[in-house]
Structure formats: structure tokens, C-alpha cells
Amino acid sequence: xxxxxxxxxxxxxxxxxxxxxxxxxxxxxxxxxxxxxxxxxxxxxxxxxxxxxxxxxxxxxxxxxxxxxxxxxxxxxxxxxxxxxxxxxxxxxxxxxxxxxxxxxxxxxxxxxxxxxxxxxxxxxxxxxxxxxxxxxxxxxxxxxxxxxxxxxxxxxxxxxxxxxxxxxxxxxxxxxxxxxxxxxxxxxxxxxxxxxxxxxxxxxxxxxxxxxxxxxxxxxxxxxxxxxxxxxxxxxxxxxxxxxxxxxxxxxxxxxxxxxxxxxxxxxxxxxxxxxxxxxxxxxxxxxxxxxxxxxxxxxxxxxxxxxxxxxxxxxxxxxxxxxxxxxxxxxxxxxxxxxxxxxxxxxxxxxxxxxxxxxxxxxxxxxxxxxxxxxxxxxxxxxxxxxxxxxxxxxxxxxxxxxxxxxxxxxxxxxxxxxxxxxxxxxxxxxxxxxxxxxxxxxxxxxxxxxxxxxxxxxxxxxxxxxxxxxxxxxxxxxxxxxxxxxxxxxxxxxxxxxxxxxxxxxxxxxxxxxxxxxxxxxxxxxxxxxxxxxxxxxxxxxxxxxxxxxxxxxxxxxxxxxxxxxxxxxxxxxxxxxxxxxxxxxxxxxxxxxxxxxxxxxxxxxxxxxxxxxxxxxxxxxxxxxxxxxxxxxxxxxxxxxxxxxxxxx
Length: 653
Hints:
Layout: H1 13-16, H2 28-47, H3 51-67, H4 73-96, H5 102-118, H6 123-141, H7 150-166, H8 176-194, H9 201-223, H10 231-241, H11 243-260, H12 266-280, H13 296-312, H14 332-345, H15 347-369, H16 376-385, H17 393-417, H18 424-439, H19 443-462, H20 469-489, H21 492-495, H22 500-518, H23 528-552, H24 559-588, H25 596-615, H26 635-645
Helix pairs in contact: 2-3, 2-7, 2-18, 3-4, 3-7, 3-19, 4-6, 4-7, 5-6, 5-15, 6-16, 8-9, 8-10, 8-11, 8-12, 9-10, 11-13, 11-24, 12-13, 15-16, 15-20, 16-20, 17-19, 17-20, 18-19, 22-23, 22-24, 22-25, 23-24, 24-26, 25-26
């Protein structure tokens, strides 16, 4: 008889999740840009006899490489140029207080407060706030060349060099990223229809939601000031809008596949043909070989697919189908006013700004009182770790410590074995290429790739060689410790997060969506456009809720444990939205209209669930009876609501 193996002690999943590399392809174009953008300035600086100037330009290029995350060319201009402007302001402020002791502490603390507050506006503002603080810390910690304007100019040149490299393909591929994004959305919808009736349907629907969000963000951001003046964008928007009826019909198709067997394989094949037509810009009369629909769900899918094919193959843009209220951004002045109000009067904005300011203030005060070699690295580490919009503060501190240690191994080999001078250029060419390749794999891998690059550039400025390695490790560990204690443990919301609040809002919005879908006289469902917009907003919000819960799963107990217990409820709410959409689609295509007396109890149960989520941290099982026709269109919806109300969890208070 075999002896049982002793139980092995293994670290918890919430701690090790960040060490698993994401299964994503390597962005080869970004790899090539990073390699050229960081190595070319070093070569120019060496050729001109000013290696320090070349290192500063490469530092600016490093910031540009990190910021270059957009697909559309116009968005790249915005994503790279705006953060570079904030970075130039930051290094100027840092340079002006270099060597000023407690004045530097006060200025950097104030910069940290502003950086944290503006980070709450959005993704570009977050990166801008990051570069504002990072460059201020570097300027206050490293001697910069005189006069004061030279450092911000050199750093900005590096960012502009990355921008130039990013825009080289613009004349030839002006709308290619947007067209590829819309085609990818069609392919995601094809995968969704292929998964109908099976266990992988929920995962494919989430992929469709993410793809729709990305496509609308790309196209509508460009159309904010180009309405009616860019036929190619008008056509792409029309092609994207007709995806919505296909997405709306998918839940009905999923229900039909569960009851009567899989849908015809010609349906996903036809959607993939439409994706190819979008990407290649093909027009003409579509030839569709689709099965004859019989049931309401089949009619809904058939109608949506034929409508999409007609719009995709139109030669001229369909001006009647360019409703961009599904996500078109507001006017610039409106967005600026909203952002200003959010920054100045938002509790979350002030809370994060104060947390970041406290950590930076402590880091700068510590290195002012205690002699710490290369002390600016402490504040740099705090800045990178204290980005909760990039992930869990706790897990980022742990991942950064391990990533820095791994990066230092490579840096030690480079600094010990490679002679300084022209050898730095090919070495930087290789190291820079690792940044975009590793950044896509996860935060620990990104840190491991960036660390040797920063050390090589720092050595070009300071000429300290191998002596940089161990201080870098010490300072990183000190910075991680400050972030964990002053930025995490001292703030109760970090480890007693009310993760149910956003979910409660989503449940309440779901109740309103049920009313929108079946309200009005005889269940007419109100305005179809309003229903479409409500559904798009709801799925986008649910996508955000899902991301927040996935982030909470990487937190230590009790937050991570509570998120794991509540996770099935997130899935249940998504299924309720799907069931509501499927019921509405079936009614639109011939199924009997539900009695208003059936709709009211469903809405009431959802509102009671939302109220319960706001009032407690504990999931309590609730058995509920929802009367109605067992053969009616609302029966699947009632089943999903009963399932949501029946979810129970442990007492996590």
C-alpha cells in the first residue's frame, strides 16, 4: 500500500497569481520601437561626446515606451504626448529643489498629492500623474545638467522620438487599427455563437463585451470632433452598431441551443465572413446561405445577421445608422468640467492623493534623516507600487520586490562584465526590447525588464558601475515596506474594502433594465434605442465590476476571501442581464408578451438584493417565490433571479 504523500506547504493563490505569465502574444512592433528608441539616443550621445545627454533622452524614451499602449494612431499622440508634458513639468520642479533638504520633501509631497488626485480621472491622466511624480523624484535626486531647462527638454525629446517611431505607419495605415478592432469584434461574436448552448458561453460573452468596449473607445474617441466629416469612420461606426443586434440575439440563441440543440454552424461562419469583409473593406451584394428560421430566437438571429450583412457590404456609409450615443464622448469642455469636479470634490480622489502623499513624504523624510545611497530609488519604488488603478497595492509591492531582485541579477551581469562606452548601445538594444515583451506578461515581469535598463542609464549618469546593484535592492525593499505599511495597512478600506457597493449599483441598474425592457403599455419595452444604450452601459459597468473583483481576489484575507465568496453573484447578475435580453428578443420576434404582474416581482427581488448588498458584508441565502407562467418568456429570467437570491456565503465580518 502506497504511503500518502505529506501535505506540502504551498503559498496561497492570491499571493502567487501575479507570478503566472499571461498567455498573450509578443507585440513585435513595440519590441522593435523600444529597441531603437532607447539605444539610438545613447549612440548619438556617445558620438557627440555627451553620454549623459543621451542617457536623459533614453530616459524620456523609456517613459514614452511605457505610455505607448493605444492602438489607434490619434490615440497614440494623446497617450504619449500628454504624459510627456506632465513629465517635463515634474523634472523641472524636481530640478529646482535638488539638494534643498526639507523644501524638497515638502514639494515632492505636494506633487504626490496632485499626482494621486489627477490619477482618478482616467487612464491617460493616471499615466500623466505617474510621470509627473516619477520625474519630479528623479529631478530632486539626481544632479541634472545646467541650465534648468535642459533636463526637461532632453526627456521630452526622448518621448517625442518614441511618438515619431509610433506614427511612421500612419500615412499608410491611417484607419487600419480601428478597422482591425471592428473586425475583431465580429470574430468575437462568431466565437460567441459557436459557444451557444455550451459551458464556454459566459467566457465568450465577456470577450465580446471587452472587444465592443475597445472598438467603441477607438472609433468614438476619433469621432468626438469629426462627426459627418470622415466617411471611413462613419462607415466603421455603422458596421460596429449593427453588431449590437447580433449580440442582443445571442442570449436568445444560447437559450434555444440549450433546449433544442446547437445552432447551425453556418451562423458563426457567416459572422466570420463579415469580419473579413470589414477588415478588407469589401463591398457588394452579400450572398447568405442561412437556414430557415422557425422559432422566435432563430428569427432574431437571422434578422440581425441579414441586417449586419447588408450594412457591412454597403458601398456608401449608412447615415441612418451612425447613432453614436452608445458611447460617444461628450464635448471637450464638458469633459474638462466633469474631470475638474471629480478631482476636487471626489472623496476617492482625495483619499488616494493623501495616501500617495503620505508615502512619498515618509520616503523623502526618511532619506533626508538617514544616509541612504541613491535615495531617490525609495520614492521611485513607492510611486510604482502605489498605483491601485494598476492593481492591488499589496500584490504589487510583493511582485515589485521579486521583479527587482530578478532584474538585478541581469543588471549585475551587465555592469560587471560589459565595459562602459559603445558596448552600452547593443546591450541597451537587447534590454529595451525586453520591456514591451515582458510587460504584456505581468507586473513582476515588467519590473524585471525595466530594472536593468534604469540601472544602465543611471550608471551612464553616475559612473558607479557594479556598486549600483545592492543599493538598488535595499532601496526597493524600503520603498515596498513604506507602501505596505503607510499605503496599505494604515488605511482600513484597503483590507476591509466594501467590494459589494459597485455590485449593488449594478444589480439596481439591472432592475431598471428589466423595467426598461418590459415596461410601458402591454410590455412594449419603451424606446429601443434607450434599451440598447442601457444594456451597453450595464455590460460595460459589469465588466468594470468583474475587473474590480478579480483585483480583489489578489488581496490577502479578508478582502480576497470575501471577493471569492461573492464571485458567483457577479456571474449570476451577468446571467440575469442575458436572460432579460433573451426574453425581450423573443417577444420582439413573436413570443407572447409577459403579463406586467410577472415583471413587478422580478424587479422588486432585484432591488431588495441590491439593498441587501449595501447593508451587509455577509451573503445571506434568501428563498424566494416568483409567480408566473412556467412556459412564458420570463421563466428563464425568474430562474436566474432565484439562483442569485439563493447564493449564500460564509460570515466574513
